[in-house]
Amino acid sequence: MDQMPANKGQPFMKMHGLGNDFVVIDARARPVVITAELACGLADRHRGVGFDQLAVISEHNIADIALTFFNADGSLSAACGNATRCIARYEMDRTGVSALTLRTERGVLQAKDAGNGLTAVNMGLPQLDWQDIPLASAMDSLHLPIKGDPVATGMGNPHCTFFVSDAEAVDLAARGAGMEHHPLYPERTNVQFAHLIGPDHLRMRVWERGVGVTLASGSSSCAVAVAAARRGLTGRAVTMTLDGGDIAVDWREDGVWMTGPTAHVFSGTLTPEFLEAL
After folding, report:
1. How distant, in Å, are the alpha carbons of 64, 106, 139 from that of 109?
2. pTM (2 decimals)?
């Protein structure tokens, strides 16, 4: 996205990973101040552009680039795995490199070209202690005192994973909305429902805090893979089938790697009239 005169609006890109969709603004090309009002206005699928998360690219003095994420309700998100993969692919294609580092609130993440059009990102080590997730008080994160016996995992943002007999049968909107604000999660939580469909193969559906039902979620995929391995349901390398498609997750010694496809759908420009109305 080339720099444009101030009266020509704000350039942006629309991307998605398995249907988990993003508006991406490259603030290196033109600085922009993101307010909650702007994020919510952009997220509106009728009056704005529409997204699950907004991602802003900026310069960084240690990593190759820095990323800041916003949810559809205007709140900040420390981690967004699919957006990280999408932007890593964009930056690798733009610069001609096969690996790079990205600074997020989760820390400095590594990304690399995985071949066959796939992109891999190391989302870092999972947070398993109650205070790091965080939970409201000391408890076993592998067995929460909640009906359904869910698992709590931190991946830079909090997650609550239910293993069920049939994830397809779950009323995701109702149960996800109810769990997002559970008092055990002081910072709210992402909610997943998953079942085993084969050796090291899980079916998972997602409710994202600050967004709602999404077709996919990178950090949720990582959290479910970690929870399944901790419960002894799978090994550490799994295939996750989400509503938007399949992603591979591998919990290694250096962190949780996820590998999958990305898409840069289009580039556009937010008009001055749209920006001034927010």
Report:
1. 10, 8, 29
2. 0.93
